[in-house]
């Protein structure tokens, strides 16, 4: 038996050197394996068997993604770049759009409204997500701002697909109307954004109102989106802002969680497919007239914005579906067994991806919009006259209000011509008299 003990000690040294960074649970598994080895006859124990057992146990240890000092600053840099570009890029687009008449159309007013949303997201949501998810892993802003944070988050979450729906609908209708230009003087109705923009803000704010009752600061282990592998988390003190656990509001909070998944992602994806396909057909000129330059680029940007929205939200919503199907008890069919393993790296990426459109939108605007670049040129030519030549008159394209004025003037001229045509000419008999 002494021989068995010596062999077991050598095997333990080998396992200790190989698995120095293994957690407490794995160490317990190793201890149980050694106890099983010690209970076997000495004739059956060899160093080859122990090495084989050691290698098999090491291979069975699951490898997981951990955010530590080696990659922490990469995540911090990613969030900071998102904040800076979202604020400065969208602010530059807004100011540039105000410097030119080319952007005084309903489509661009909706883009300006969306840029305001992106700036608010970058200022009111992203910094607190960075603080609570990467740097300090704690929520110490209290219940008051927890309610405000979740209200802003869900408001802006619904704001983006709603804006894309209005923008897609407007562009499709406008392009169809211009297809009949010249027939009875049909032009796009001026200022429809005065109806679209208030509706977008109203519905987005109304959708987020329940978060005022269903938000609470809770221990971090209650968070379904948590990342476990952090070297600097203080588990006894770490908290998170999430939906409430109070029995009075828990049922409503769960149903709001499900409704937000359906209303902010599933339904918009279905509804946006129709205008996305219609705009694609109009851009390609299939069975339709060729779009003008301004309509073409604005429609093309809308297609990319829809793709950015769906790609950025898909990982987050996939996790929500996974959690609903495997954890929530909604009848006898749920929960089901875990059908898809989601790693720690997946959770880290999906939290940032929700904010990615705020970073990508200004880059998209200045890449594909000649009007935005022209406004930016005018802005810098006015701010730095020594660097840019003086901008010429900005009369390349009429705005919506100018289109309405031209239509009114055209109708007025037609009425005047008709009035002039009704004046009776002098007859031959009157001339002879």
Could you characterize what this model shows?
By secondary structure, the protein is mainly α. The protein has 2 domains: 2-59; 72-380, Rhopdopsin 7-helix transmembrane proteins, CATH 1.20.1070. 67% of the residues lie in helices and 2% in strands. It has 15 helices and 2 strands. The protein has helices at 2-18, 24-38, 47-59, 72-98, 106-124, 126-135, 142-178, 193-208, 247-284, 293-326, 344-353, 356-368, 370-383, 400-421, 428-432; strands at residues 215-219, 239-243. It has a two-stranded antiparallel ribbon. Helix 4 (72-98) packs across helix 13 (370-383) and helix 10 runs antiparallel to helix 12 (356-368). It is globular. The N and C termini lie far apart (148 Å). Residues 18-24, 53-63, 178-188 and 421-433 have low confidence and may be disordered.
Short description:
The protein is mainly alpha-helical and 433 residues long. It has helices at 2-18, 24-38, 47-59, 72-98, 106-124, 126-135, 142-178, 193-208, 247-284, 293-326, 344-353, 356-368, 370-383, 400-421, 428-432; strands at 215-219, 239-243. Helix 4 (72-98) packs across helix 13 (370-383).
Task: Note the beta-strand portion.
Answer: under 5%
Unreliable segments of 5+ consecutive residues: 18-24, 53-63, 178-188, 421-433
Summed up, the helix count is 15
Return the CATH class of the largest domain. Answer: Mainly Alpha
What is the CATH homology-level superfamily of the largest domain? Answer: Rhodopsin 7-helix transmembrane proteins
**Structural class, judged by helices and strands?**
mainly alpha
Total number of distinct structural domains: 2
Q: Report the major sheet.
A: 2 strands, antiparallel
- The sequence of SSEs as H and E is HHHHHHHHEEHHHHHHH
Give the overall shape: globular
Radius of gyration: 32 Å
Instruction: Report strand order across the widest sheet.
Output: 1-2
What is the first-to-last residue Cα distance? 148 Å
> What quaternary form is this?
single chain
Structure summary, number of beta strands = 2
